[in-house]
Structure formats: C-alpha cells, structure tokens
Amino acid sequence: MDPELSARRGEWLAIAESLKPALLETRHAPVSIVSVERDDAAFQGWSVRRPDSADSLASRVLGGNEGVTLDFGAYLVGHLTLRAENVERPPGAPLRLRFVFAERPAELGESFDDYRGWLSRAWLQEEIHVVDALPATVRPPRRYAFRYVRIEVADHALPYKVRLSDVECTATSCIDTDDIPPLSPDVPGDLTEIDRVGCITMAACMQTVVEDGTKRDRRMWLGDMRLCALANYATARRFDPIRHCLYLFCGLTDDEGLNSACLYEHPHPVRGEDEIVDYSVQLAPTLLEYAEASGDFATARDLCHVAFRQIEIAFADCDSRGVFTNPKGKWVFVDWNPDVLHTEAAINGMIVACARAAARLAMLCGEPDAAARMTTIADTMADGSRGRFLDETTGVVVSGPDRQVSYASVAWLTIGGVLTAAESRRAFLELFGIGDAIRPVTPSLTHHVVQALFDCGLKDEAWATVRSFWGGMVERGADAFWEVFDADDPMRSPYGSPLMNSYCHAWSAGVVHFIRRAYPPD
Amino acid sequence: MDPELSARRGEWLAIAESLKPALLETRHAPVSIVSVERDDAAFQGWSVRRPDSADSLASRVLGGNEGVTLDFGAYLVGHLTLRAENVERPPGAPLRLRFVFAERPAELGESFDDYRGWLSRAWLQEEIHVVDALPATVRPPRRYAFRYVRIEVADHALPYKVRLSDVECTATSCIDTDDIPPLSPDVPGDLTEIDRVGCITMAACMQTVVEDGTKRDRRMWLGDMRLCALANYATARRFDPIRHCLYLFCGLTDDEGLNSACLYEHPHPVRGEDEIVDYSVQLAPTLLEYAEASGDFATARDLCHVAFRQIEIAFADCDSRGVFTNPKGKWVFVDWNPDVLHTEAAINGMIVACARAAARLAMLCGEPDAAARMTTIADTMADGSRGRFLDETTGVVVSGPDRQVSYASVAWLTIGGVLTAAESRRAFLELFGIGDAIRPVTPSLTHHVVQALFDCGLKDEAWATVRSFWGGMVERGADAFWEVFDADDPMRSPYGSPLMNSYCHAWSAGVVHFIRRAYPPD
Known about the structure:
The structure is a homodimer.
Chain A (H helix, E strand, L loop, with lengths): L2 H17 L4 E5 L3 E7 L7 E8 L13 E21 L7 E8 L3 H4 L16 E6 L4 E3 L5 E10 L7 E13 L15 H17 L14 E2 H12 L6 H12 L10 E3 L5 E2 L5 H5 L1 H12 L2 H19 L28 H21 L3 H22 E2 L4 E2 L9 H9 L5 H12 L10 H13 L3 H17 L35 H8 L4
Antiparallel strand pairs in A: 1-9, 2-3, 2-4, 4-7, 4-8, 4-9, 5-6, 5-8, 10-11, 11-12, 13-14
C-alpha cells in the first residue's frame, strides 16, 4: 500500500470516532397480549392470535412456568424494561425469568434448544434473568431486535405470584424518523407500504454504525451499508453517520491496501477476517454515491485512493483477456446461494461497474490520472467479459462450464455497461423465458437486478420485481425487510435454520431509493 | 400492641438503616482446575479430582460446548469477574457462557434441569450470560456463594475459540477475619478445624444482615441470626452489625406486637410472612446475649419490651395447666423434621427458657415489674411442662400421644430448667439407650442439645456431639457448615433435593461459641 495512505489510517479512525452519531431514543409500549400458534397455512408455520389488549397485563398474575407474550405492534431495536412485583405472598425466592425476543412468530413457536444450525446459538435472543429482590425494575442486559417478547417464569416452584407492568422498550436509532419526508401521494398503495417497511428497516439498522442485521450479526458489512445508505440519502439524508462508516472502513484498510469487507465496532473498531471481492470493489460506488448525495467532496478526496486501490487489486487477478478469474480463490459473494450460483460473469460485471464508478469519483475529486487508470481497467475488463459471457448469437448471458444462466450475471453485466441497453433487454427477456434460470434469494442481489432493469429501460419489469420480492415479504407480514426471501421456500436459510435469519437487514432497505427516485416529492 | 411501641417502629428502622454495616472486600483467585466425577464412595456421590493448577487456564482455549471447572480452594461469597477473549478468529458472534456456582461438588455433577424440589429453582446458582463484544470483562450479575465455578461455552457453534483469564472473586463480609483472635494452642486439632470452618461460616453469613444461608435463602431469620451472633461475640466481637439486625427485627414488629420470624432486606426491609413461635420467643435471649456480650444496655432497654411481648403472646396460648398447646396452629419449628418430630415438649421448654432470659433481661434493664411477670410465666409453664412431659418413674421425657422420645424434648426442658440437672442427666442417659429416639438433623437443634449437655454437666457427651456432628461435616469435606446434616443420609433435604440445601448456614456457626468458651484465650 502507498505508505502515505497507510500512515493515514490512524487519522481516519480518529475522524470516524469524532463522527460517531448520537442515538435517539423513543419509548414504546406493547399493544397487545398474543398467543403464537402452530398454523400450517401461515408463513413458517406459526401465526399470531391477539386474545387481549396490553392493558390487561396489569390484571394478570403469573405463577410457576407461566408466561405471557407481548406484541409491540412494530419492529423495534432497543432495551426492554419492566416492573415485576410479587403478589399474594412475600417474595420468598428470587424470580427466574426467561425472555425470548422475536422478530418473527416462528422464533416464539420453535424451541431454541432444538437449534442445530451452524451459526452461534448466542444470536437467538433468549435471556435467563434472575432477579434477587422484588419489587424490582427489570432490565434484560442486552439490546434486542424484536416485535414480540415472551416473558416466562422459568421456575416450576415459584412461591408467590408475579405481576408484570410498565413494560417498555427504549428503542434507538441515529435516524429521527420525523426527518423522513412524506411520500408523494402519487405513489401506489402497495409501493407506499413497501416504502414504509423499507424506512423502518433503514432506521433500525442505522445505529452507531449501519449494522447489517439488528438481530444478527450487528457487524458492519460494506455492501449492506451501501444499500442502506441509498435509502438514507433518499429520505432522512443524515450524511454524517455514513461518513462515520466510510472513515471506519478506510481506517481499517490492511497493509496491502485491501478494504475490510466487514468490521467490528465494539469494544473498539477491528477489521473482520472476511475478505469479499464484492465488498472491496464496491467501496468506489459507495464513496461516489455518498459524495453525490451529500455534496461532501472533501471526504471523497480524502478517501478516494483507498477505493481506487480496490479496483487495482481486483484487476491484478485478471487474466490476459481482462477477465477476473479469481486465481487466489477469494470469497466472491454475489448472492446467498453459493452451492448453486456460478458467480464469474456477475463478479466481472460488478468490477467493471465499480471501476466506472471509481473513474467518475476520480474526475469529481480532481484526479484525472486515476480516472484514466480506472477507465482503462473498466474498458479492458468489459471487453474481456463481453467475449466470455455473452453468447452473441442467442443473446443469452452465460457463466461457467455449464453455461449457467442467472439473474446475477445479466444484472451485473448490465450495471457495468458490458452490454448495450438493447443487449441487456434481450438478455433479460431471454432469461424470463428460461425456467431454471437462477433467481436471486437476497434483497441485495434483487436490488441490483432492479437497478439493472431500470438501467436498460425495463421499467415495468423493475417494478414487477419490487412488487413480487419486497411486496412478497409485506404479504407475509414483514415488519422490516429480511436478509433472505424465497417465495417458494419459507424455511430457506443460509445457516441451517430460519430462526437464525435476520429479519431486519440493511441490504434490503435500498428499495426505498427506487421508490423515492421514481416519485420525487413536490 | 402498646401504642407507644408501635409508634417507635419507624424510628427503629431508621436506627437500623444508620447501622447498616459496610462490607469489606477481599479478592480471591482460583487455585486449581478440577473435574467433578461420579464416585459412589464420595459424599453425595460426587468427588473432585484436581488435574491442573489454575495457572494453566491461560494456556487453555475453549471451543463450542467446552468448559472448565475452577476451584477457589475455600468458601466464598461474592461477585465473579473474568476476562474473555477470542482467539484464532475474530469474535464473529456473541459469547454465550453458562456459569454454575457450587457450594458442593454435587451441584456440578447433577443437572439443574432435572431439579424437581419444592423450593424455587432460582436458588440454584446458574447463569446464562451472553457477552456481545470481545475481548470483554465479564461479570455475572448476581452475588454467588461457592467454592467451585463451572464456566461453559453454551453454544455448539462458537465460530472462534475463547481464552478465559483473570478469574477473580471479590468476596464480601462485614467481618474482618483479621479481627478473629487466634485459638488457644490448647484446643485439640479436630476442634481447631471445626472452629476454623465455623468462623468461615460466621463471616460468610454476616453480610449487611446475618443471612441464614448465603446461597439460599439470604433472608434473615431470628434463630439463625442468634446462633451466628454467638459465634461473632466469641471471635470478632463486631456488635454494630448485630445491633443493626436487632433494630430491623423490632422495627418490623406487627400491629399485635409479634416479632417477625424472618425479614427481607431488599429492596427495603419488609417483614416476612412466616410466624414461628420459636423465633418469636427467642428474641429475649438474643437481646440478652447481645447486651451481655457488648455491654450495650441502652439498646437492650430500647427494645426489651418487644421481647417481653413475645413471651406474653406465647403464654396467652397456654392451657390452664400452663402448657403451650398451640391452639391457633402456629408454626412450631424446633428442627427440620416436621413429619417425624413431636415438638410439644421442646417448644414448652423453649418458651420457659426464653421467659427466664426475658426476666434476666428485664432486671438488667431496670424493669422489675416486667421481670416479675416473666418469672411468673416461666415458673407457671415449667410446672405445667414438668407434669406433662417428665415420666418421673422412668426419668424419660416424652411428648405427644405416642410418648415420643427425642433429643429435642430433653434439650429444651433442660435449657429451660424444667428439669433439675440430675433429672436432665438421667433423661439424656436414658435417651442414649433408646435406639429410635428422634435425633436432631439441623445444626440448630444440635447446638441446643450441646448447650443442654453442658448445662446439666454432661461435658464429655457435649464434646462428643460436637465431634460427631460438626466433625462429621468436616470429615465429609465441609468448607462451611451446613443447614442440614444427617450422617446416615447424605441426600437428606427438607426441600426434595440436596442441591437446594444451604451449605453455609448461619445457625451452624454457633459451635464456635462452645469451643471459644471452653478454651478462653490467654
């Protein structure tokens, strides 16, 4: 890495620290007492019934092994407090409470003890909390992401009864939702609902950093941050929290100049171990989008050489034809579908797109030499990709020895401008007719498919995708948008259990950007 | 109740608050890493093996579902802290730790999930503690009573390894053990060991109040407090913490003037619901012993009328012969053996003993009228008891329609002076020959048996009892003295599970008083 850039990392981390946003707190009470019941017709097999208003909590008492499930009526990220008091008898023993915080009803229906997925069980939001003396204000220690909370007396032999009251969530975000302008009344109802849930997702994920998921995993990943930032630029337009994130990423660049795909914020900022080609090269468009939205070109100038470096690192792994062949076996993500999706066409299109963004960034930052280098990389790789992935006879885009056809390939070659608009339209229309074309499973890739459809003029198809994908989540009761959504497989999970999926995930918030851009406010 | 006394309760609680002792903190590190193994030859079926020194902890790393058991080498009451750091990989998930704090090895061997006893499971010292970010200082939230702690990664899928270090217990007591004078070198070795464990028990139970048990139930019960106070007077002689307790008890007297058998200290002092005849009448000797040990007759004068009132309340339930027949069905405790022990003889002897203590207290407080009333009650009841419980022909003391013979009956009629010393000696010697005589199971009743043996001149038998009972606990590895001990039944429990028994119990500390009184320091 350029020794000068390397030396600046400490300075950038200090700037990041100074930009750490304050969290706004809002207070929320539960709206109803519910029961979660097995229902094969419901999403993931569990439905919520509302037997009672939350006001009735004060008149209930719980005995041993009894509990209550509260519905806050909306998705929240924050801390819970409640009062617990003994009734009928003195508090002759501590009170052992079990809390389960749930984003989705299935988290309340299924037993966490049966979880056998391959991510840490610690992400499942369960607390055993023992209160020594009553009455007491009880505050489970962690921050939780939830709409529902189940509170149980985890003790068969409680020697008194318990009354719970004053249940309240102090929710946090660095976004004041009052800053989000109202949608134009021209927006159709279904898109209005998608925008509403998207704004909730964006605000929930924007804590002191943009968290990828508020339940799991709370790290900041560059790709998730980018799409959430787009939703922010289209709504609340709070730029300093994003600037904070950009300085963190650049401050944690490694000695080779490689951007960190993800980082840990606590107890102090640390680079994550994962290196993802996608999230390295996307630093350039992320920085460009920030500068263009905010007008803060000083930050762009300060950090742009880190972004250029990512493109150069990727280009160094291209073959003589200008095709990125991943000779070092790095992690190429594209979508949460690693056993199925062939990613080569997509990642090449993505690098081209990012190199073009880098070139534009360089021009705006007054770096013509860098702009020229980035343009050369983009053009060279675009030529290589075109030759390798586009079947000019059929107009189909293919990837890999099995000539796999996927939305990922077409989307990214479109965004990169590897195809002409007409070629992209033809490739998409061919794709729509191929039954076994590999479809996106994440809102992240789906976002880029929508972007590509808009880019090549397939506007109706873009909105249809928004409606079927984000609208499909809304139809299934999404309170925030999810990490993974497969309309055909409600139990789909990258982790061996849908309990482990994040149901408020930053990379799904970008849909707001499309809606707000298409329907500008008056 | 005397309206004047009633009005003073608030004042007494304020005095109590002003006397609340500061807690001294001492820091302790574990001494070894152990394993707890099934061993039918060991007490309660579990033995501890010491595979490693605690220093080796730093070189160990734990993965998913792995754990370590630490032995602090001594009984402690306090808070645990430790450092946890991820090794080998970044901390890609929270760390879900399970702690089990154990007084006895069986608490580590048996599963708490199988516990089906009838006291609250919340007393079993288990914590599930999730740490969001590493490295971290981890502090399980409650105060624990333990010698051993098991720390487990309660997660099959931990994505990194964990190193634990700097494990430390900050133990608390209001007693500075440096204030305990050394034992006379004349004390035999086995009694020295009993004294050592007794002093540990006394200091551990003396927190801001005298807790009956440091693991369970942490309330203050008058009978437990009395015997622990005797150990304190014989050793550290810290009188203000006991004065604090006396003011709390009297401040929580009910509107009828009845002393509370137990009280809750937190979140603010509250009278417990249980009314125990034993613990009502024993306020008089407790106050007398405090005044005689400390010389603080001002406190005795302030509170003595509450003590007299307890005797009068009990006497009001006596029949025309002066026998307490418990017409209101109150709780008469005597020993933790309610289904077996017939308590009538014992409780009558106890009331007589306490009335005699009240009479002496009255004289010392300059209350001759009260002294006369107390003496009349004692004499009347002694006559009644003698006629009802002593078979003058055989010299045997009996209780109930089945003429049950028990240590409890003889001990309390002896302490009350209902029998002459010669009659007591004869009754005890008869008792020793009766195979099915009901023996004590608690250190509390055993303490009073020892007292009675000394009182009637059976000194050898008194020491033999100390050696077999407290020495029996020492032989079985007691680090502090227990709530219940039955040499013939290691699993004996008043609560359906020996896991729930307290293994550091205030009422067992009084043995120190006998040893120190018999072997005064130079």
